């Protein structure tokens, strides 16, 4: 299994500390354990920022960075080893493991944080933290600050400034290293196999959850612990619901099924959408809409390269889709005027993509100084145009209603343009129909 190497976590911490003000401290908590019901917990998933800097997979931990500290710049508070709890819940790194396996310069029991952390904060001019994203931890931080303030008459010096860590850290996360791209490529490869498996299994009489089970099987078989987000398996009219997640309707001949699903490897997401006919054969109307969306996606790929701005890919999809809808008679009028009036939004109401990384909708600003961000090598994003013709749209002929198509791939900006990480899934009408025909022939 491909993982981010330990050396990369160290490099990230050094890069962040190089941007921090002198005599400052950064404090970041691990994700809390989420309760599913009563005393049953959800599968644990580390906070993305915490994971990015540490690779440490456990809850009840706090990471501290203190650039220039003579006794070590990277400190980790974490759970102690505990034979009884480890019997129930699994092994813990403990303080020795935090240093040996996760590169901490020093490590302390999390139970001692109230005694130790105020002393580390005292005398530092600036505190960087994830302000606002974890209210409970914000309260703890203020408690530690207040401990220092209560001793001001004894000469204790509380910090002067409190700064959100986001603007430094999230800009770093926007640029993917070669190691990150390798992990994302692997996540996309496994997800591509899952989509192929679902295509091959697709037939009338199954339920949407039957295809979701095929996805989950391939994710786990490939080594992914979990999907990167709730899988969307939307057939028939459900394909026009952008974030549909019931996944329980019957698959019917004549309907399309839209699957938006991807797995997560080492906390890095993939995000792929494919749309295909339940029966294995597109109707003329389905084919026309599908090929229009595919053409829009190809136009977007051509606009993803260094020195092109973020919105150029979206603008390309809008132009292709609007002109195509006019050609099909679903919109009437001048293409430029229809774009200006946003008439296309009745059919294409979302943007062409989003940043992709440790979060499916990854961190990073889309605009800088009020202008669209210029793309640079290492930025990763999705490209996902779609057309959705509502089942009750009375402005179009009945034969078009209820058709929803989205095609989504994951790309990373390269020096030459972009690499499509998720290219392993069939995408043309001919490829999809051939794959499904072969699967049916084999099953017969």
TrEMBL record:
Family: Belongs to the peptidase M24B family.
UniProt keyword Protease present: yes
NCBIfam families (alphabetical): PRK10879.1 (NF008131)
Name the record gives this protein: Xaa-Pro aminopeptidase
InterPro entries: Aminopep_P_N, Creatin/AminoP/Spt16_N, Creatinase/aminopeptidase-like, Pept_M24, X-Pro_dipept-like
Annotated keywords: Aminopeptidase, Hydrolase, Manganese, Metal-binding, Metalloprotease, Protease
GO terms assigned for molecular function: manganese ion binding; metalloaminopeptidase activity
Gene name of this polypeptide: pepP
Catalytic activity, EC: 3.4.11.9
Cofactor annotation: Mn(2+)
Hydrolase in keyword set: yes
GO cellular component, one term: cytosol
GO BP: proteolysis
Domain Aminopeptidase P N-terminal, residue spans: 4-138
Top class in the EC scheme: hydrolase
Catalytic function, reaction form: Release of any N-terminal amino acid, including proline, that is linked to proline, even from a dipeptide or tripeptide
């Amino acid at each position: 299994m491909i993982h981010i190497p330990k050396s990369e976590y160290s490099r990230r911490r050094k890069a962040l500390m190089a941007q921090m003000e002198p005599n400052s401290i950064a404090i970041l908590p691990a994700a809390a354990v989420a309760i599913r019901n009563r005393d049953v917990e959800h599968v644990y998933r580390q906070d993305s920022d915490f994971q990015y800097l540490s690779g440490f997979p456990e809850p009840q931990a706090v990471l501290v960075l203190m650039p220039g500290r003579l006794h070590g710049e990277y400190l980790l508070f974490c759970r102690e080893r505990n034979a009884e709890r480890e019997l129930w819940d699994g092994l813990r790194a403990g303080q020795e493991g935090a240093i040996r396996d996760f590169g901490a310069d020093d490590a302390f029991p999390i139970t001692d944080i109230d005694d130790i952390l105020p002393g580390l904060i005292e005398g530092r001019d600036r505190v960087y933290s994830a302000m606002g994203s974890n209210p409970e931890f914000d309260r703890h931080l203020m408690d530690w600050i207040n401990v220092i303030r209560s001793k001001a008459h004894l000469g204790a010096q509380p910090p002067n400034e409190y700064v959100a860590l986001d603007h430094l850290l999230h800009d770093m996360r926007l640029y993917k290293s070669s190691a990150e791209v390798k992990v994302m490529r692997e996540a996309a490869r496994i997800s591509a196999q899952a989509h192929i498996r679902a295509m091959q299994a697709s037939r009338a009489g199954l339920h949407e959850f039957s295809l979701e089970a095929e996805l989950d099987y391939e994710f786990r078989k490939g080594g992914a612990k979990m999907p990167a987000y709730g899988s969307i398996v939307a057939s028939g009219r459900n394909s026009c619901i952008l974030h549909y997640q019931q996944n329980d309707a019957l698959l019917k001949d004549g309907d399309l099924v839209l699957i938006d699903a991807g797995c997560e490897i080492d906390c890095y997401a993939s995000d792929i959408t494919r749309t295909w006919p339940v029966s294995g054969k597109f109707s003329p109307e389905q084919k026309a809409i599908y090929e229009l969306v595919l053409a829009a996606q190809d136009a977007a790929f051509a606009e993803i390269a260094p020195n092109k701005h973020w919105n150029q890919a979206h603008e390309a999809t809008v132009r292709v889709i609007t002109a195509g809808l006019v050609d099909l008679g679903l919109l009437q009028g001048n293409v430029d005027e229809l774009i200006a009036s946003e008439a296309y939004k009745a059919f294409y109401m979302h943007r062409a993509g989003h940043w992709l990384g440790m979060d499916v909708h990854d961190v990073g600003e889309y605009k800088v100084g009020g202008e669209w961000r210029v793309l640079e090598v290492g930025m990763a994003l999705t490209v996902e145009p779609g057309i959705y013709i509502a089942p009750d749209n009375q402005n179009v002929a009945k034969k078009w209603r209820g058709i929803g198509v989205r095609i989504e791939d994951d790309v990373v900006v390269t020096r030459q343009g972009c690499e499509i990480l998720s290219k392993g899934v069939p995408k043309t009408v001919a490829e999809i129909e051939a794959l499904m025909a072969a699967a049916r022939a084999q099953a017969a």
